[in-house]
């Protein structure tokens, strides 16, 4: 039954925060200020007065010191384990924060670069759309020009055919006259040919028309030969002119085939480019939207991780503070036990001495 009062005494002394330089009287005076400590001292005094050995008190003090040291070792082990766990949690949170920060930077860069690419694509679409319109206009204009060239050739070629036919008919009439056929028999054909040649209004035919007009009034072999030579020359020129027109037509047709091919290829390329850009614009907008949404999510994740880190750090600080306070308290308690052991072993080696001090103090 003597263990409980002595243990209570030690705890009371521990809360007294005594100083090493204090005398036994001062120590007991501090303990006595507490009503419970006063009662304990009275019990202790009674125990010693009845012959209780000081050695039992020393044993109790040793047990208390051992218990305090054991509690501190347990606390150190728990603190070490908590510290390792905390450092792992902190490392994980810091890694998570770094990951979210990296994601935020990457998503921000993706959003910005894609937004820039979107602007460039939209600008290029406008340019390509204008190029397509210009290409189609050029094709229409050049096609119209080519059609006009072809129509002109068809008309001129038909004129040349008619003129050559007229020359051939005139040659036949003149040859009939040369063969002795009466002009009266050929007059109708002659007048038709003459009218056709005059309709053409070609300068090439003017000398021929004059010669034929003279021949109508006077037929002679010399004039006939001259007219036949003139007809041959004119026909040769007409054939050459027709061939030249055909060559020009063929060249223009070939040029148009090449030019139209280039225009069509360019049109195809522009249309495909526009389709690609329009598809890219759709994809860019989707990418930007997804990047913005992911950026919002990553920002929330980052805030949560930072909040968790703040909570963990505050908790760790509180645990550290509590651990340090408890460690400090145990150190103080151990110091009191050691002081009390010193008092009991060195200063109060006999019961009579303790009783004397007790009486002097109280």
Task: Summarize the structure in words.
By secondary structure, the protein is mostly helical. The chain has 8 helices and no strands.
Topology (elements, then pairings):
Blueprint: H1 3-16, H2 24-32, H3 35-49, H4 54-178, H5 183-200, H6 206-217, H7 221-347, H8 351-361
Helix pairs in contact: 1-3, 1-4, 1-7, 2-8, 3-8, 4-5, 4-7, 5-6, 6-7
Short description:
By secondary structure, the protein is mainly alpha-helical. It has eight helices and no strands. The model is unreliable at 1-20 (pLDDT under 50).
List keywords for this structure.
362 residues, rod-shaped, signal, mainly alpha, disordered N terminus, 8 helices
Rg result: 64 Å
Would you list the SSEs in sequence order as H and E?
HHHHHHHH
Quick one: overall form?
rod-shaped
Structural class: mainly alpha
Number of helices: 8
Alpha carbon gap, first and last residue: 25 Å
Instruction: Give the uncertain stretches in residue-range form.
Output: 1-20
What's the number of extended β-strand segments? 0
Average residue-wise pLDDT: 81
* Strand portion: under 5%
Q: Biggest β-sheet: count, sense, barrel?
A: none
Q: What percentage of residues falls in helices of 4 or more residues? A: over 70%
Keywords: Signal
